[in-house]
Amino acid sequence: MTSFSDNNIRILLITRIIRNFYFGYLSFILPLYLKFIGFSYIVIGLYAFVATISSSILVLLSGFSGDLYSRRKMLMIMSSLTIFLFMVLLITRNPTIIFMTSVLGISFSAMGGGAGGGPIAPLINAMVADRIDKGRTTVYSIMTASGTFSGVAGGVFSYFVISRIYGYYHVLFITGFILAIISVALTFFIEESQTHIKNEESRNILPKKSGKKIIMISIAGAMGSLGLGIILPLMSLYFKAKGLNTSSISLIFTGSYILAGIAVIMSPYFERIFGTIKGIVIFRALGSVLLVFIPFVPVLAGAAIYIIRTAFYQMALPIRQNFSMNVFTSDERSRGSSITGIFRRLPYGVATSIGGALFAVGFFALAFISAGLLSLLDPFLYYLFFKEYSVKSTATP
Predict the structure, then answer these.
(1) CA angle, 286 then 292 then 293, to 5°
(2) 119, 55 in Cβ contact below 8 A?
(3) pLDDT (tens digit per residue) in 191-250
(4) Which domains does the chain have, with CATH numbers?
């Protein structure tokens, strides 16, 4: 099947659009809210670290349970976590209780990060791959673009709320709470794929058949996340420290979503031009190196660079998703994605703690330089590990 004629794929698309709407503003509003209620840079970095550790555990749980038990049921469970986050944010401002929401694993990393997409990503990637044989990069790019433009809508929505309503945090959290409930409700209508059902009797706990590819992708991703985690979860705080107000920061993130959405639509086209591996390497390298220039230019120029680098980084995502699903065996896709996700999330969380410490002492330039240079190891290792695929396309037509 090569289109969205499968009802399950349509539901996955709709739920992604709904989730991305509130994540379109949650990614930057949550760290600002934590600062608003009295959290220091150090504590915000620690919150991100705990959330990343928890998310890594949840990624492992979702991927393994999805392959061995039920991807559909795990999707419902993992999608429910944001409901509890919004509930807490709405009913209390107690710093201790709010800090405890970090165990829900909800990252406030902005789009274009390297944290691996959370515990939902391994499930969705595998569920799409089970049902789509040809044109998979196109399907991933359409889903990514749709989610991205939904994030744009969420960002625009937050801009108007922030600009016009005094208690804008409360309104944004209520909206997210309602949408999270709708998203979870829709997952009840998804069916387990027949490919997944047929493979149930022949599975080992560890994904041995895809093990080598999983480790190589994991190492490359870990290096990228080690760099990006230093700065990306704290971008809204950087812009705030440079004098921009919350509504302006909202516009910056919205702009990054718009350009990223356009970019990912072009992913299949550029994959055909450059090839799978070269496409990944080129776009991830550009998305990394541009970070280095942000603290050395005026804040608005830095915002423009941030928007552009986000588009480059996201452009590689559908290509990378398709490549992983091609080299992982069908019955190990969720586990493979969960393991690679852990290798991205753990360094990301550790690095955010480091970034928080650098921000606390005003070393903004050092944070950006470290982020850009370290994250370049991701595309470098990807090419080193998979350069043989440069001469034999792994893209599905």
Answers:
(1) 95
(2) yes
(3) 876 555 555 544 567 777 888 888 999 999 899 888 998 998 889 889 999 999 888 888
(4) 7-198+206-390 (1.20.1250.20)
